[in-house]
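Intended use. Records like the one below are meant for learning the mapping from a protein sequence to its folded structure. Do not use them to infer anything beyond what is encoded.
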Amino acid sequence: MNRFIYAIVLSGIFAFSAQADDAAGAKLKSLLSGINQFKAQYAQVITDSGNNIVHETKGEVVLARPDKLRWETYAPDDNVLIADGETVWNIDPFAMQVTVMDQKGQVKDNPFMLLTSDDDSVWSKFVIRAADDNASEYIVTPKNGEGQIRELTLLFDGNSLTGLSTLDAQEQTSTILFSQSSTRFPMAADTFQADISGQFMVDDQR
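Structure written out for the chain above:
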């Protein structure tokens, strides 16, 4: 599976000169709390420390509060990752394998938690900085610095989330741009349910 997407549930990029302050955190929390659900097509590019492209993917992402995620990769390979608020399902249709994990234990100190959480105890684990005067980019850094994702940058156009970037522990940068995004759409009842047939090999790590 795409290692970056796996890091989303298991645990910047730009050298901005930015100052951390409470106002930036409050503004970002206000922006994200207004997004109760989010769906978009995405294009992802991962580069190494020398700015060489090491991987590219395309697919669709669906987020919902609280703590729900469906990240589906269409190219170059099919893959589905589902977090239903309690359990994470990493589904590889080609290999007919699925890995099942406890969500709470896997997302500790992961800045992606802020996308679907209003919990003050979660937000207190991160330093948040506004990257520019227009507050169109926010840099989120875990305070303990021990997770797979060292820095997350969220990109906005007004109140709309347009993309994000990360710097991981291997010094790789992942940039994701969203298109055809929507925050108002009918949510299928099975969006965050894993559809696993008896033919799948299941690795249950809960």
